[in-house]
Amino acid sequence: MKTKIASILLLFITILFFSSFINNNNNTMKPFIVVLDAGHGGYDPGNTGNGYKEKDIALKIVLEVGRILEKEPNVKVLYTRKTDVFIKLHERAPVANKADADLFVSVHCDAFTNNAYGAGTFVLGLHRTQANFEVAKRENEVIFLEENYEENYAGFDPNSPESLIGMTLMQEEYLDQSILLASLIQNNFTNNLKRKDRSVKQAGFMVLYKSYMPSVLVETGFLTNKKEGAYLNSKKGQAEMAREIANGILSYRNSISLATNDSQNPVITQEEIDDAIEATEERIYKDIVFRVQLAAVSKKINTKSSNFKGLKEVSRVKEGNLNKYYYGETSDYNKIQLMKKFAKEKGYDSCYIVAFKDGEKLKLSDVLNSEDK
Ligand SMILES: [Zn+2]
How far, in Å, from the CA of 232 to the mean position of ligand 1? Predict the structure, then answer.
């Protein structure tokens, strides 16, 4: 009898062991899927500064990024186009959604006066400056080349800055991760290639708005600038830009693979978060102070970092019987987003952003909607 129980037990343990093995295996086997989107194509050449064609340069860079990524184990690359064909803007993000992709990266070249140069990386959001709006406007204008664009874009008008309000909500959920990816790519451009840093910025790019994953749009440089146009049109320029985009994507992937519970959450260090904050454009709400609420407990705790999993800048506010513990204090919504992300990494899973005005707590959504743009 005893041996029977023992052997059943052994069988049970064996099954447990193997099923956990299979489970783990499944997790590690799920490929990291990147969708690469070469801007424009077909009868939409994109910008043609100095006679260069944006659609061709974007495609060459994208194919090279893909070639590098495809060499990596467990990375799967999909393309919205691999040849010179026209693809509607609203058909690009669904390629990524259908594949349940981990990232969506759109590659472009900019155009302006011949003086402007440098590389910038964008995430979807409401532009903070006219210059950012103009970039998005240029990239969105292609919808006028499409039939039935009014139906496909639900009344979206590339010429109206207000048109995007209400459309950014979907990507808002991935904003912190998009900014992280963008800053990894952007830092590579400036540190490794010494490209002029046009920083990580937000604007209303139609191509990003329908994707359900972290998404960025890279403006590799200005074809309208003689020197930069020639660089981007050269094999060397394309290879270098592609390498840095690919490396940014891989750094992002590597940080994710260390994550414990949520495969979408990259593990980041204090230094990386500081770099990301540094590289990211500000999104200031005047007279508003944002903080990340970590905990509300009756106990009074010293706010030194060792009591808060290493987080610095923790403050305590007594509200009724509760002591509330906040991390960070800034009027910059992008910065507080990144700080919230970091607090989550440290184990404060249910932390959230709180907005204050003159010490009074406000509803966050009211603050974000009332923004004076
Ligand atoms: Zn473009």
Answer: 14
The 10 Å Cβ neighbour count of residue 269 is 11
Q: List the alpha helices (DSSP H) in 223-332.
A: 226-233, 235-257, 270-279
Mean pLDDT score, 89-116 = 94
Question: Measured in angstroms, how far is the CA atom of residue 64 from the centroid of ligand 1?
Answer: 18
CA 160 to chain CA centroid, nearest Å: 24
CA of 69 from ligand 1 middle (Å) equals: 22
Look-up of token digits 């204008």? 141
Q: Kindly give the distance from the C-alpha atom of residue 108 to the centroid of ligand 1, in angstroms, as a whole number.
A: 4
Query: According to the model, what pLDDT value does residue 373 have?
Result: 40
CB 41 within 8 A of CB 146: no
For the stretch 30-65, what's the b/e string if a residue is b when 16 or more beta carbons lie within 10 angstroms of its beta carbon? eebbbbbbbbbbeebebbebbebbbbbbbbbbbbbb
SS3 320: coil
pLDDT digits (tens, 9 = 90+) for 108-160: 999 998 999 999 999 988 777 888 888 998 898 888 888 777 777 777 788 87
Q: How far apart are CA 211 and CA 174, in angstroms?
A: 10
d(CA 254, CA 23): 20
The DSSP line for 83-133 is: SS----GGGTHHHHHHTT-SEEEEEEEE---TT---EEEEEES--SSHHHH
Which comes out higher in pLDDT, residue 372 or 118? 118
Give the model's confidence band at 224: pLDDT under 50 very low, under 70 low, under 90 confident, else very high: very high
175 contacts: CB under 8 Å, gap ≥ 6: 123, 124, 125, 334, 337
Ligand 1 center from residue 81 Cα (angstroms): 14
Residue 138 Cα to ligand 1 middle (Å)? 7
> CA angle, corner 40, sides to 181 and 78, nearest 5?
50
pLDDT of 20 reads 47
Distance from Cα 139 to the centre of ligand 1, integer Å: 5
CA of 110 to the centre of ligand 1 (A): 6
* CA distance from start to end of the chain: 78
Largest CA distance in the chain: 88
